[in-house]
């Protein structure tokens, strides 16, 4: 066959003078050449990705054969062009076996799609169609990046990830993952697990033997012998032969073992770990032996931070390792691990011995519990420089490990500009040696290179060209406030100032208390270096003078129960409790409506029983025989508690017929018939099964909350019921706005459950309130002193307001104590409270007392509190909004909607006739409040949702059937963010990296961080960091012991930042055998750590399921910092010369949070996890990074500034002189101040 290089891409002969013609033909020829070159480029990229071939001649041949397949098919024959293309590829010698047929079809379809999109148009009509499709001026093609055609997963089989459960059922954990999970278990649970595992293995072996026996018995019955004696003799001979084989096998196994001699290599298991080393047990030809590996013999001598590590940081108990005998002294055996390759068992330092050899090459090398060479000193099998196989980032591990910022555990001292200038002057004058310089690298024996200047690359994805804010496209966001200049919005904006004043007033009172302490007691606070224990004594004396009581103590004082309980307790039998619910009387009508309608909208008040009873009614009616009955909940706590209640009513153990699934926790089994889950978990199941085939009924509960996942599930379930006639969909809501749901779901039937409601009197304020917290407290006191008995429910926006309100109510009641008023028991409710405190709100108040529950909007519909007769509604709530300009989420106080106001008022009419005090005018209710709340999908970051939709093959985001479409600007920002992470290619299609990221139940940034950690060899530490970030409030500061708690917390501070600090906390907890008293001693939330431990176990299972290596980097935290930077490079900040930091992305000024380990340390470059807005913009969970990493980790986001010019960040600086009022303004020019 003639080489294809002699033909052009379209198959026609090349013309050397095609570009020299004049006139319109010349322009046309140039355009055709550009398009053909573009097509060849994309085809070569695709071939390199899938075939590992990057040859322009082969690309030309593939394009030529593909176009011939499209042209030469007769119109009468219905032949798939892809099949014709496969035949042509086979004719030229391409391998297209049956095993690769499916993958080949997907590759060919992918190539054809590229050719069809990039090929030159054949006619003016086609050109016109193409122009209309991508024109920004038309309505249909305004945003072509959001209107990419959808594609089925079958069209791109190269993106399909192999799941072990799809091939061999539910695959067991690998040995490495099982070791890691066993290390997270307490001793008793570990022993129980191992016993259960041995029992299962024994039962499996016995079943196998029994099957073999029956098989032999059937074989003997088919081939009877004439003589029974001959059979017996044959049986004895076979028995003797089998016993002989067993003896030979034992001898052969002993022959594989090596004798106990110097410099022999063995495989052993770590038995005990001490500070000075570890004891390893191993087998030899002489029997079981045990030797000591000194801590200096674990890591190579060149390892970073080797002298500062203990054995517990490098190895773990029950870890399988390779050891080398280096010393024999009587019964004592000295071993070494650093002279053996822990991956292959090869001797790295051969010495003279009679039997010096390594482990057999054919033997499978076990890598220990960390799945890498122990301690992480050596890298994995990949080269130290190159491109990561999982994350696609450019690796330069030698540079990362040798960075001067943290060689081992030492970090570069952070000096200001003057101190650095002074050190360089002393170095230049010869006073200081090079080794005395602060930026000297002891590992490389040289000073580090000069400071790296970074710039934000203005790279724009090709599929979003001309559609982003860089090109001037400005779109108005969705309005979450109806009247920005109204009285409600003014009060909301003023509340931050009032809260700051309250904090300052409280702090001033505390300072007065401290000053009232005798002088000898206040000396430890004034002394910067007090003696040990002095501040603790002063703190205890200070706590005596401060009369602060917690809610738990307050409940105990008023006689309220203090134990843990879930929900309301009732003395009625279970059957009578179920029959007392309002839904029980409508059971028959409800089942009939379900049978007659495929989609049903159910409206019912909170407490009517729709969540717990409807699933049981459907199971009793036989719907569970056809598939699982699934019910989604917007919150994890709701899914857990409801599942426990339903399992109790259903009469089964939780996890059997009734179970639940939440993120990082699965309590279901093959017998599960009723399954409660969060809406996010059902969305993840739809990723693998868009039609939800294993479900017979889907119940979307609490749909009125309109979470992001619920809105996406609306569209997916709507498409599923179009294709499945046997699927039932039920949408439940606690509000009366059901017509919108009905119209969206094909004008479906509405079923209403009447609740136990009583009339509620609505009282409005005559004038707008400026401080709604004080107005609410005055209203509570007025109700308590003048109204009839009955509990009070007050709605506030957050934890700080609730704690302040409860404390002020206690203080005011203490002031009224001489008047002997009836007791008032304030009780706060918010998400961060302990379980025992939350459960106390359901208990009735003691006789003669009144309970005042101060809650967030969680009390609107999610929980039901009996005994409430009075509701105080200030009209505000704290909601999360996404700022597309700053790329961050923020919790802001905004006015509620009219639907929320009605829902709050309804809380007063559950037990009897009640009253609702609205602390705003009736005019504000009608003119300043939206009719319904803005859905979360229109005010949140959608990167995770877009990634999930892309993984399902849904690329046309504007064409997706949202109930309320999200803002276009948010979608474009999400696509751009995913492209920067590498999850999308230049055409806006999902990459292999993006497909892997979609499998992790976490934000895309954390998914990229985990995948990068696999390439960088620090997955074990990254999993722990992600698990710790998934929980909140790891540390707690009691109001009466804040300084002691701060001292305990400072022990864990790491110079690398908060991520490593959290890692050190978890490691310390693990070394203390996961002790709860240790947590109490160090002011650490034991419940948060246990939750992080569960998350870590789940992440280990996910990583093992997709065969991702779980490596450990030991103490080389540079790798971990690079992995963090690979996921959160968008949050890179640089220190501002004046104050705080500047975010590189948009130069926004931010400040490190006071709770951070880097507070007042002022490193030059940091990356943060989240940004919170309180009195100022604070960054939390901060980690130090090196600027030279960023162009390699995020080439689409950062580039190194040109040394010949001035960077954009420097150009924005404005030099202002530092002057004295007695001299001229321009007398001194020292201070460099940035433009604001």
Automatic annotation (TrEMBL):
Top-level EC class as recorded in UniProt: hydrolase
One GO biological process term: spliceosomal complex disassembly
SUPFAM superfamilies cross-referenced by the UniProt entry: Nucleic acid-binding proteins, P-loop containing nucleoside triphosphate hydrolases
Compositional bias segments (type: Basic and acidic residues): 148-169, 195-215, 242-255, 339-350
Annotated InterPro entries: AAA+_ATPase (IPR003593), AAA_22 (IPR049945), DEAD-box_helicase_OB_fold (IPR011709), DNA/RNA_helicase_DEAH_CS (IPR002464), HA2_WH (IPR048333), Helicase-assoc_dom (IPR007502), Helicase_ATP-bd (IPR014001), Helicase_C-like (IPR001650)
EC number: 3.6.4.13
Biased composition (Basic residues): 216-240
Keyword Flavoprotein in record: no
Keywords: ATP-binding, Helicase, Hydrolase, mRNA processing, mRNA splicing, Nucleotide-binding, Nucleus
Reactions that this protein is recorded to catalyse: ATP + H2O = ADP + phosphate + H(+)
Domain Helicase C-terminal: 759-953
Domain Helicase ATP-binding: 591-754
GO cellular component, one term: catalytic step 2 spliceosome
MF GO annotations: ATP binding; ATP hydrolysis activity; RNA binding; RNA helicase activity
Protein name listed in UniProt: RNA helicase
Pfam families: AAA_22, HA2_C, Helicase_C, OB_NTP_bind, WHD_HA2
S1 motif domain segment(s): 263-338
Region (Disordered): 1-26, 122-177, 195-255, 339-414
Claim: Plastid is one of the keywords in the record: no
């Amino acid at each position: 066959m003639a080489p294809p290089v002699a033909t052009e891409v379209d198959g026609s002969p090349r013309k050397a003078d095609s570009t020299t013609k004049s006139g319109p033909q010349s322009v046309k020829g140039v355009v055709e050449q550009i398009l053909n070159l573009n097509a060849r480029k994309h085809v070569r990229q695709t071939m390199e990705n899938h075939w590992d071939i990057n040859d322009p001649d082969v690309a030309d041949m593939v394009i030529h054969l593909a176009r011939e397949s499209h042209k030469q098919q007769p119109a009468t024959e219905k032949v798939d062009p892809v099949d014709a293309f496969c035949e042509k590829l086979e004719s030229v010698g391409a391998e297209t076996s049956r095993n690769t047929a499916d993958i080949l079809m997907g590759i060919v379809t992918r190539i054809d799609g590229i050719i069809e999109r990039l090929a030159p148009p054949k006619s003016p009509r086609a050109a016109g169609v193409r122009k209309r499709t991508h024109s920004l001026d038309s309505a249909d093609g305004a945003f072509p990046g959001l209107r990419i055609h959808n594609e089925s997963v079958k069209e791109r089989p190269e993106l399909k990830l192999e799941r072990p459960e799809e091939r061999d059922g539910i695959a067991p954990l690998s040995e490495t993952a099982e070791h890691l999970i066993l290390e997270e278990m307490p001793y008793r649970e570990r022993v129980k697990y191992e016993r259960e595992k041995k029992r299962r293995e024994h039962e499996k072996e016995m079943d196998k033997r029994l099957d073999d026996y029956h098989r032999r018995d059937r074989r003997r019955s088919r081939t009877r012998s004439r003589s029974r004696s001959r059979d017996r003799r044959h049986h004895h001979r076979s028995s003797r032969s089998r016993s002989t084989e067993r003896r030979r096998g034992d001898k052969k196994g002993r022959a594989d073992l090596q004798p106990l001699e110097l410099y022999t290599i063995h495989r052993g298991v770590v038995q005990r770990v001490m500070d000075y080393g570890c004891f390893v047990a191993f087998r030899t030809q002489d029997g079981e032996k045990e030797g000591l590996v000194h801590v200096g013999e674990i890591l190579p001598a060149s390892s970073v931070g080797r002298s500062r590590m203990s054995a517990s940081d490098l190895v773990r108990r029950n870890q399988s390792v390779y050891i080398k005998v280096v010393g024999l002294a009587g019964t004592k055996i000295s071993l070494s691990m650093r002279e053996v390759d822990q991956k292959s068992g090869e001797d790295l330092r051969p010495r003279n011995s009679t039997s010096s050899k390594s482990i057999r090459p054919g033997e499978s090398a076990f890598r220990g519990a960390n799945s890498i060479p122990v301690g992480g000193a050596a890298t994995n099998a990949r080269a130290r420089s190159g491109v990561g196989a999982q994350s696609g980032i450019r690796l330069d591990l030698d540079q990362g490990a040798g960075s001067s910022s943290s060689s081992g555990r030492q970090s570069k001292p952070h000096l200001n500009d003057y101190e650095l200038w002074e050190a360089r002057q002393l170095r230049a004058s010869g006073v200081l040696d090079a080794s005395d310089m602060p930026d000297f690298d002891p590992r490389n024996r040289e000073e580090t290179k000069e400071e790296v200047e970074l710039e934000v690359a203005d790279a724009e994805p090709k599929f979003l060209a001309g559609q982003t804010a860089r090109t001037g496209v400005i779109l108005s966001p969705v309005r979450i406030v109806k009247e920005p200049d109204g009285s409600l919005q003014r009060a909301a904006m003023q509340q931050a100032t009032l809260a700051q004043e309250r904090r300052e007033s409280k702090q001033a009172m505390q300072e007065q208390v401290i000053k009232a302490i005798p002088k000898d007691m206040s000396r430890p606070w004034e002394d910067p270096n007090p003696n040990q224990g002095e501040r603790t004594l002063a703190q205890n004396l200070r706590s005596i003078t401060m009369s602060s009581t917690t809610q738990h103590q307050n409940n105990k004082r008023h006689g309220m129960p203090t134990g843990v309980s879930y929900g309301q307790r009732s003395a009625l039998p279970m059957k009578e409790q179920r029959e007392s619910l309002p839904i029980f009387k409508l059971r028959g009508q409800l089942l009939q409506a379900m049978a007659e309608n495929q989609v049903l909208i159910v409206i019912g008040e909170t407490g009517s029983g729709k969540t717990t009873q409807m699933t049981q009614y459907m199971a009793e009616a036989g719907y569970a025989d056809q598939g699982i009955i699934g019910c989604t909940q917007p919150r994890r706590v709701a899914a857990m508690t409801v599942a426990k209640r339903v399992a109790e009513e259903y009469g089964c153990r939780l996890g059997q017929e009734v179970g639940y699934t939440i993120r990082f926790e699965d309590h279901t089994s093959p017998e599960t018939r009723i399954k409660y889950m969060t809406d996010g978990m059902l969305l993840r199941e739809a990723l693998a099964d868009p039609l939800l085939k294993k479900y017979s009924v889907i119940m979307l509960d609490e749909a009125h909350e309109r979470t992001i996942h619920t809105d996406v599930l609306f569209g997916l379930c709507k498409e599923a019921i179009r294709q499945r006639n046997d699927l039932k969909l039920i949408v439940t809501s606690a509000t009366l706005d059901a017509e919108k749901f009905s119209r969206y779901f094909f004008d479906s039937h509405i079923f209403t459950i009447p609740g136990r409601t009583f009339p509620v009197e609505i009282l409005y304020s005559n004038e707008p309130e400026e401080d709604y917290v004080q107005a609410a407290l005055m209203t509570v006191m007025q109700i308590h002193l003048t109204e009839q008995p009955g509990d009070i429910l007050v709605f506030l926006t957050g934890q700080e307001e609730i704690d302040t309100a409860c404390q002020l109510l206690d203080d005011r009641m203490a002031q009224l104590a001489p008047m002997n008023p009836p007791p008032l028991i304030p009780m706060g409710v918010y998400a961060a409270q302990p379980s025992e405190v939350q459960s106390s709100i359901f208990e009735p108040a003691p006789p003669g007392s009144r309970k005042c529950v101060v809650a967030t909007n969680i009390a609107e519909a999610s929980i039901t509190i009996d005994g409430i007769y009075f509701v105080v509604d200030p009209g505000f709530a704290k909601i999360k909004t996404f700022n597309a300009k700053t790329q961050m989420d923020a919790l802001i106080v905004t006015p509620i909607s009219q639907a929320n106001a009605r829902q709050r008022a309804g809380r007063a009419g559950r037990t009897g006739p009640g009253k609702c005090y609205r602390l705003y005018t009736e005019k504000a209710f009608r003119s300043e409040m939206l009719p319904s709340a803005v859905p979360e999908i229109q005010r949140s970051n959608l990167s995770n949702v877009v990634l999930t939709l892309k993984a399902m093959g849904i690329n046309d985001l504007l064409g997706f059937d949202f109930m309320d479409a999200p803002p276009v600007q948010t979608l474009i920002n999400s696509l751009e963010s995913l492209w920067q992470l590498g999850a999308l290619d230049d055409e806006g299609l999902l990459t292999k990296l993006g497909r892997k990221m979609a499998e992790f139940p976490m934000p895309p940034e954390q998914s990229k961080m985990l995948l990068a950690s696999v390439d960088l060899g620090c997955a074990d530490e990254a999993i722990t960091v992600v698990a710790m970030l998934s929980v909140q409030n790891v540390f707690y500061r009691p109001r009466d012991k804040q300084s002691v708690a701060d001292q305990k917390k400072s022990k864990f501070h790491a110079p690398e930042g908060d991520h490593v600090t959290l890692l050190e906390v978890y490691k310390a907890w693990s070394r203390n055998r996961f002790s709860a008293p240790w947590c109490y001693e160090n002011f650490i939330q034991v419940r948060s750590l246990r939750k992080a431990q569960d998350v870590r176990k789940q992440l280990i299972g996910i990583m093992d399921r997709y065969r991702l290596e779980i490596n450990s980097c030991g103490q080389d935290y540079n790798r971990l910092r690079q992995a963090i930077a690979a996921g959160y490079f968008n949050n890179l900040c640089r220190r501002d010369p004046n104050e705080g930091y500047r975010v590189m992305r948009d130069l926004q000024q931010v400040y490190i949070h006071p709770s951070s380990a880097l507070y007042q340390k002022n490193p030059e470059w940091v990356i943060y996890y989240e940004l919170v807005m309180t009195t100022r913009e604070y960054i939390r969970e901060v980690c130090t990074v090196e600027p030279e990493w960023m162009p390699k980790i995020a080439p689409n986001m950062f580039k190194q500034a040109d040394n010949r010019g001035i960077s954009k960040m420097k150009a924005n600086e404005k030099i202002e002189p530092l002057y004295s009022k007695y001299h001229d303004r321009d007398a001194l020019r020292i201070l460099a101040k940035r433009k604001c």
